[in-house]
Amino acid sequence: EQVTLYPNPAEDKIFIKGLTTKAKVTIFSLTGQKVYNGSVVNNGQISLQLHAGIYLVKIASDQSTLTKKLVIK
């Protein structure tokens, strides 16, 4: 499955496209602090209130786990 995260850079919300099942989403700061934890289904929207910077988004579904870089402007 081709999972995409957009927009990137983002401001207050992101969308995760390409999921075929429910997935757990965890977002970490570059210092390793967990700043978001939740789940999302196909084309899910996540509302965020994060400071500007770079974050790592871990998307874990039954099929796979992947990590993507997210820039908040």
Report on this model:
This protein has no helices and 7 strands. It has strands at 4-6, 13-17, 23-29, 34-40, 44-47, 53-60, 65-72. It is mostly beta strands and 73 residues long. Strand 6 and strand 7 (65-72) form a beta hairpin. The strands form 2 sheets. A 4-stranded antiparallel β-sheet has the order 4-3-6-7, with no helix packed on it. The protein has a 3-stranded antiparallel β-sheet with strand order 1-2-5, with no helix packed on it.
C-alpha-based Rg, rounded: 11 Å
Strand content: over 45%
Would you list the SSEs in sequence order as H and E? EEEEEEE
Distance between the termini: 28 Å
Envelope shape: globular
Give the low-pLDDT segments: none
Strand order of the largest sheet: 4-3-6-7
How many individual helices? 0
List how many beta strands DSSP finds. Answer: 7
Overall mean pLDDT stands at 93
The helicity comes to: under 10%
Q: What structural category characterises the helix and strand content?
A: mainly beta
How is the biggest beta sheet arranged? Answer: 4 strands, antiparallel
